[in-house]
Design a protein that fits this description.
three-stranded mixed sheet, alpha/beta, about 35% helix, binds N~2~-(3-carboxypropanoyl)-L-arginine, globular
Length: about 450
């Protein structure tokens, strides 16, 4: 059946800040305590969404979560009025307040793993929000994420929703950031490539030494089971521990796939040959086109610095592919030269577009981190909530909304300010009205 790939970008929330919360994510560590600009961050994201919608691509938006998240602070023992909870958390341990205030749900590649209906046993689109249990500030996302996805994709005839996996390290799950789908066409059965960093039950399997591996093989297997994926639709691959130790905390920092093309760095996978062979054996109706980037062209460090592979690989209306990269790729000379050569060589990637996403990039989130891909056929598109799809009118409304509610400067000490909490709630309350989502936040209930 005819289908499209819809990209749902996370709208950056009003508390976007740099708290250095993600050990193993080089940008997050480097920019700890920098002053952020939430207004600029949200604008940068919206401009990317609008530009891709203008190209005729199917583009949606997912709302930010309620932050600072008072229910989390209360759950870990802070009490009193909202202002007292904020003040007490700030005094006791500012990192806890930062964690409860992070706008990290903007990186919707980590929101969930999604299997299109063409792959699943019951012919429905399956969603499992990621438990994100490797990091406290991200582990609080999945409940709201689940609620938002269930509100947007509500019809049970077409959509199936699972709760996040159990929140223990053996089921560490980071969602679509470690999941790529290859296919002949979006509406045909494809191959879902699940990439993990460690095996929880196999002590002898190789692991990174310096930085944590967030995703487990056991989590990948559980999701493939939950989604009813037949063997021929799944490939499980281990990430190269060397890459994780260089700062590749998710596979989408070192590889991206679309259609029959896999664009990846030679150090992405522990066993590259086996990954390609398994995909080739299972990919029906198309020949895999691997675009392998050699370390001699782009070293791991430059890949992490530029986020070359955290690009969006998109199919244009004419069937050729577009690579959406962050400005940092053009600021890194050998990566920029590589991109020029890539387009010139006449392969499937015909065009490169560059976006300024600096506010998100400084926390380790590039173009691919900011979007969740959902392949949908025509009936499924009709069945989903239309209010979140990007149009000229929605873009204008959201730009004005950002202008009205967002600060242009935020530092750690502002997080305890009760007026930031009030402004954020007012903003989100207005947003649910704009997007027609109803009461999705705890403070609205
Ligand atoms: O989980 N950064 C996020 C970045 C996620 C990027 N997503 C993908 N690669 N798909 C993370 O490490 C930093 C927040 C801070 O330090 O304030 C943060 O959560």
């Amino acid at each position: 059946m005819k289908a499209v790939e819809a990209n749902f970008d996370g709208l950056v929330g009003p508390t976007h800040n740099y708290a250095g919360l993600s050990w193993g994510n080089v940008a997050s560590q480097t920019n700890v305590n920098a002053v952020s600009n939430p207004r600029e961050a949200a604008r940068q994201g919206l401009l990317k969404m609008k530009a891709l919608a203008d190209l005729g691509l199917t583009q949606g938006v997912l709302p930010p979560h309620e932050r600072p998240h008072l229910p989390t602070l209360r759950r870990i023992g802070f009490s009193g009025s909202d202002a007292e909870v904020l003040a007490e958390a700030e005094k006791t341990d500012p990192v806890l307040l930062s964690a409860a205030s992070s706008a990290s749900c903007m990186w919707t590649a980590n929101a969930a793993t999604v299997s299109p209906s063409a792959d699943t046993a019951d012919g429905r689109v399956h969603f499992t929000p990621a438990n994100l249990n490797a990091k406290f500030h991200r582990s609080i996302e999945h409940e709201t994420t689940g609620r938002v996805l269930q509100t947007i994709f509500a019809n049970p005839q077409y959509f199936a929703h699972h709760p996040a996996l159990p929140a223990v390290s053996q089921f560490g799950d980071e969602g679509a950031a470690n999941h790529t789908r290859l296919c002949a066409a979006y509406g045909e059965p494809g191959v879902e490539l699940f990439v993990y960093g460690r095996e929880a039950f196999n002590e002898s399997a190789p692991r990174p030494i310096r930085y944590p591996a967030r995703q487990t093989r056991e989590a990948c297997e559980a999701i493939a089971r939950l989604h009813g994926l037949p063997e021929r639709c799944q490939v499980l691959a281990q990430q190269n521990p060397e890459a994780i130790d260089a700062g590749v905390f998710h596979n989408d920092v070192i590889a991206v796939g679309n259609g029959n093309v896999l664009f990846y760095h030679e150090r992405a996978f522990l066993d590259e040959e086996w990954v390609l062979t398994d995909i080739r054996g299972k990919l029906a109706g198309a020949q895999l086109v691997p675009i392998r980037v050699a370390a001699s062209d782009v070293g791991l460090q430059d890949a992490v610095k530029s986020y070359l592979f955290n690009s969006q690989l998109l199919t244009r209306q004419d069937g050729r592919m577009l690579l959406v990269v962050p400005q940092e790729c053009r600021d890194t000379p050998n990566v920029s030269a590589y991109l020029d050569a890539l387009v010139a060589d006449g392969g499937p990637i015909a065009e490169v577009r560059t976006f300024d996403l600096k506010q998100s990039m400084q926390n380790g989130g590039g173009p691919a981190c900011l979007r969740l891909r959902v392949a949908l056929n025509e009936s499924e598109l009709q069945a989903m909530h239309p209010g979140v799809m990007m149009t000229d009118a929605l873009f204008e409304q959201l730009m004005q909304w950002v202008e009205r509610y967002y600060r242009d400067r935020l530092s750690q000490k502002d997080l305890a300010d009760p007026s930031l909490l009030r402004e954020s709630r007012e903003a989100l309350d207005a947003l649910t009205g704009i997007l027609g989502l109803g009461s999705i936040y705890e403070f609205q209930r």
